[in-house]
Amino acid sequence: MTSRVLVAAHNHPALHPGGTEIFAHDLFRAYQRAGCEALFLGATNHIHREARPGTSFQSIGTNGDEILLWSGHFDRFFMSQVDLYGIVPDIVELLRDFRPDIVHLHHLLLLGAEFPHIVRRTLPECRIVMTLHDYYPICHHDGLMVRTTSKELCHGASPDRCHSCFKDIALDKFVLRERHLKSLLSAVDGFVAPSEFLKQRYVDWGLCERLISVIPNGQPERPVAKKPESAQRTRPVFGYFGNLNPWKGTTVLLEAAKHLISEGLDFELRVHGAAPFQSESFVADIDRLFAETSPNVQRRGAYRREDIADLIATVDCAIMPSIWWENAPLVIQEAQGQNCPVITSNIGGMAEMIESGVNGLTVPPNDPLALAAAMRRIAEDPDLRQVLSLGARHPDTIDTTAVRYLDLIETLRPLRVEAA
Fold first, then answer.
1. How far apart are CA 171 and CA 358, in angstroms?
2. Phi-psi region of 370 (alpha: psi -120 to 50; beta: other; left: phi over 0)
3. Phi-psi region of 101 (alpha: psi -120 to 50; beta: other; left: phi over 0)
4. Closest to 65 measured CA to CA, from 88, 41, 49
5. Which of 97, 167, 341, 367 counts the most CB atoms within 10 A of its CB?
6. Gene3D superfamilies from the xrefs (predicted)?
7. Structural domain boundaries of the chain?
8. Cis bond leading into 368, ω under 30°?
9. What SS3 class is residue 239?
């Protein structure tokens, strides 16, 4: 019997190409290749689409198997729908029409923390799995688990600690937020974390450990791109791929490059990515640093996902200098799939993906001098670059990941009953 799978995410990669949206959509297509009848539901708001009178749903794509849920009234603190009377009947109608056997939820943003309960009430026998991609239910600070008063990493949430980050929000509201989210998440049959680190964060928060499985994110299968002739050079080339924002360590990377230039190191750094929705002060900071590090540092702007393999092939080493607990960055997987060494921060899921001295180098987060030292090691030692390239760990294919999810889903109900 063919399973029907509803894959739900907080946006669509055609509108917002973030890692969660990309992975959710890749997995949706992999479910179809595995023989499932799958429908993709992406929630969006006025940032990407305007409301259309008469329905909560909008079309996207050309195959009729992808739709958007317009969610313009959303409470980000409680991660809840405000317009329940407008949205819930439409979601219920969708569930009754499609009648999925499986709902695979990838986020609560815009969809709403009520989503699992709506599914459970509408389709009591439907199995619900949720992939935990970040820390939004735990942390009101955009799910970063970084203190608002500094860039200090937060090792655990509590109402008191959260209130100290948001003085204008009463402490008891954080108590209510936690209880509200845990209550609504109780409708989920099983959770998946792409890293052991993220799983432990949710266990510490209070989710049942036996309900959280670890399945690393998979990638579409791609051949290793051929390096261009220009890659046979003595001047090392580094590459950054991804959005430019404070938490991705953009300024840390540029400060490290500035330090290496002052030391006279001959290198090139190609920065691929844009800075959407960033503050004027951050944009001014990176504009200044780009100007101060030119021509060694080249600002190459946004790129298409289908071009990333060829772009990675032109660099000797990729850099992922995030200063928050990144869970499973797609960029590291893309680089490793192309046998490209990676320098990354030694925290979160990044530290699980890169073993220093084996397939890349790891450095303390938010430390430009440590990052500069690692870049120098790569730049001055071609033999090390070769060793790290040979040690690359290719990610699972997305089709393998889909099979692992489907195998897990078959076990969800018994596990949930035992845990209860």
1. 46
2. alpha
3. alpha
4. 41
5. 341
6. Glycogen Phosphorylase B (3.40.50.2000)
7. 4-218+398-419, 229-390
8. no
9. strand
- pLDDT tens readout for residues 219-254: 998 888 888 765 456 789 999 999 999 999 999 999
- Nearest alpha-carbon partner for 224 in 99, 162, 113, 310: 310
Q: How confident is the model at residue 111 (pLDDT cuts 50, 70, 90)?
A: very high
Q: Which residues contact 224 (CB under 8 A, 6 or more apart)?
A: 309, 313, 337, 338, 339
CATH of 229-390, one of 3.40.50.300, 3.40.50.2000, 3.30.70.20, 3.40.309.10: 3.40.50.2000
Q: What's the rounded Cα separation, in Å, for the pair 419 and 245? A: 40
Fold of 4-218+398-419: Rossmann fold (3.40.50)
Q: Give the confidence band of 82 by pLDDT, cuts at 50, 70, 90.
A: confident
What is residue 294's predicted lDDT score, i.e. its pLDDT? 96
> CA–CA separation, 187 vs 191, rounded Å?
11
In whole angstroms, give the CA distance from residue 419 to residue 167. 37
Residue bearing tokens 């509803």: 6
Is 229-390 the same fold as 4-218+398-419?
Answer: yes
- Angle (CA) 114-181-218 rounded to 5° is 80
**65: number of Cβ within 10 Å:** 14
